[in-house]
Amino acid sequence: MKPSFAALTALLISSIPLPGATTVKKSDFGKMPDGTPVALYTLTSSTGLEARIITYGGILVSLKTPDRKGVAADVVLGHDDLAGYLGDKGTYFGALIGRYANRIGHAAFTLNGAAYKLPKNDGDNSLHGGTMGFDKRVWTAKEVPGGLELTLLSKDGEEGYPGNLKAVVTYSLNGNNLQIHYTATTDKATVVNLTNHSYWNLKGDGDILGNLLTINSDRYTPVDAGLIPTGELKPVAGTPFDFRKPTAVGARIAQDDAQLKLGHGYDHNWVLNRTGKGLELAARVEDTASGRVMEVYTDQPGVQFYTGNFLNGTVKGKGGKLAAIHSALCLETQHYPDTPNKKSFPTAELKPGEKYDTTTEFRFSVK
Ligand code: BGC
After folding, report:
1. What values do phi and psi take at 317, rounded to 5?
2. CA separation for the pair 147, 124 (Å, rounded)
3. What is the pLDDT of residue 1?
4. What's the rounded Cα separation, in Å, for the pair 287 and 208?
């Protein structure tokens, strides 16, 4: 029987990629020590932006985007295989971070009169959700239009945090734009601060000291020796923290500045200039050599700018290459560090019946 004209037309239409359509492919990325399989999802946008994400830690393992000549490079640090990620002691390469990204001072906080104790995994403090944070869990994946939805249940009391928390994070591509949409709900009042910990190197290699950085911020949160904010919102004007105009990352990094010394370089939270509630420009990075540009848009109040100061050439990255200091930079959109202990900072509390709902976009282009 001859297929009808309508059936042929339908077949033809379904095989033409829709404008803006992103394809998603699943493959195997190995097994956890207890046998749990880990999957790798490859997202490819209509313009060729390619993101690879694994269900372990919701890690963005690679992001390929072209330079001004059209040559694609992988612009994030990572490991070659699951064994590399499982053996990693503390870089958080590309991972989803929770329940509370960044530091909580003295690994403790009180919420509505109740005291909570967290694991101390960074001196006296708790960093990136504790010893078994969201970056070390296998998430449940579901393909959705344009991307990948990852779900994680964090039990009441897990890593010291109150409330059963359901976190749903969606990675999606739209043209040259990588969007990460985070939601969470709880059955008990808790604190939530989710982010992605990608290490960006827009050149794809070498160091990031020559990258031109802009941060849309007039103030930052200075820290103590444990990198816990003092509570002050300090103007960036006249300091090496002023990135209101495009400035090379390395131009002032070695200056004799007390805050740069405490951070061993930049490892601070900037208070973003915001005018409303939606997505607004947080930061822009330009690699003049390749022409690659990345703009970070978010609805969050802060961004941690970290220059990979603790990469000391001992962690084996992709291709067995050792990750050197300043070989990448992080721009982690977030609530300010130690917010649960700082009443003056915008609250990170989530109550039952409320929805934590935030979005960050990484927009790529060339110049
Ligand atoms: C922190 C750094 C830390 C890095 C890796 C960043 O978010 O600010 O101090 O070394 O994560 O853990």
Report:
1. -95, -155
2. 39
3. 52
4. 8
Tell me the pairing of strands 165-174 and 147-154.
antiparallel
Best mutation site among 262, 267, 335 for ligand 1 pocket (most ligand atoms within 8 Å of CB) = 267
Q: To test the ligand 1 pocket, which listed residue (96, 310, 314, 327) has its Cβ within 8 A of the most ligand atoms?
A: 310
Residue labelled with tokens 């394809």: 23
| 17: pLDDT strictly greater than 70 | no
Distance 306 CA to ligand 1 centre (A): 7
200 forms beta bridges with 76, 329
Residue the block writes with tokens 């390469």: 93
3-state SS class at 263: helix
Coil, strand or helix at 132: coil
CB 353 within 8 A of CB 53: no
Q: Facing residues of 183 across strands? A: 168, 357
Single-letter residue type at 163? G
Residue type, 346: P
- Region of 280 (left: φ > 0; alpha: ψ -120 to 50; beta: rest) is beta
One-letter amino acid for residue 293 of the chain: V
CATH architecture of structural domain 25-367: Distorted Sandwich (2.70)
Compute the distance between CA of residue 47 and CA of residue 228 in angstroms, rounded to an integer.
Answer: 41
Q: Write down the domain spans for the chain.
A: 25-367
Catalytic residues, which ones? 197, 332
- At 160-209, the pLDDT tens digits run 999 999 999 999 999 999 999 999 999 999 999 999 999 999 999 999 99
By three-state DSSP, how is residue 16 classified? coil
pLDDT the model gives residue 334: 98
Query: Which distant-in-sequence residues (6+ apart) come within 8 Å of 348 by Cβ?
Result: 100, 191, 192, 193, 335, 339, 340
Q: Quickly state the pLDDT bin for 287 (edges 50, 70, 90).
A: very high
- Secondary structure percentages of the chain, helix, strand, coil, to 5: 10, 40, 50
Q: Which residue has the tokens 């503390």?
A: 90
